[in-house]
Amino acid sequence: MNDFTNIVKSRRSANNFIEGVEIPQSDLEEIFGLVKYSPSAFNLQHTHYLVVTDPILKEKIYESCKQYKVHTSSAVILVLGNRNAYQGVAKINEGMHNLGILSKQELDRTIEIVTGMYEGRGETFMKEDAIRNASLSAMLFILSAKEKGWDTCPMIGFDPSAIKEILQIPDEYETVMMITMGKEKISSQRPRGYRKPNGEFVSYNGM
Ligand SMILES: Cc1cc2nc3c(=O)[nH]c(=O)nc-3n(C[C@H](O)[C@H](O)[C@H](O)COP(=O)(O)O)c2cc1C
């Protein structure tokens, strides 16, 4: 089995973690160093990761969602999607312009196209796109974490408004999901859930 197949097949959503394991900042930085290569619409990089390792904050999060793995995790990561990411289009592309890769005309055209698309399609699209892009990034986070020896669990079983208040998350960010991270307590692992065969979730050239 090659490394990628092994990572994909051995990844599980941890049911619980070994308590008291600290995650080195350097491991997190290495993981985010891979996560930044995630694709994003117009390369707008809508995703922001809010990493919580502070025990007091972590307990507040645990109190708000009562999922025990939050308590035993080494870190709780909030995956946020910026609904206004399109407003960063000039900033993201100006470096390419300064290097002479994008002409002034191409830069202006990019800004016009991106701004026109997001403002033309409106709030619902901005929200959906924040969730879409952050979800893709989150999958890469989960796989990168596994590659570095860390287990995770993506979670939606929490109250987003309580989390927003505890962590003072600005309004323009969608709280897309929570990821708990640590060393999995293998004795608590659940059997792998049934997976549909390809024939039930893939169709070619029409449904
Ligand atoms: C968007 C999303 C939200 C989830 N929320 C929770 C959650 O709140 N609590 C939990 O224990 N597991 C949660 N899970 C984990 C799923 O239950 C798990 O991925 C699924 O049962 C398949 O198991 P596996 O990931 O080990 O293959 C979530 C997964 C996803 C993708």
UniProtKB/TrEMBL annotation:
One GO MF term: oxidoreductase activity
Family matches, as Pfam families: Nitroreductase
SUPFAM superfamilies found in the cross-reference section: FMN-dependent nitroreductase-like
Keyword vocabulary terms for this entry: Oxidoreductase
Keyword Oxidoreductase belongs to the record: yes
Family: Belongs to the nitroreductase family.
PANTHER family: NAD(P)H NITROREDUCTASE YDGI-RELATED, PROTEIN DRGA
Name of the featured protein: Nitroreductase family protein
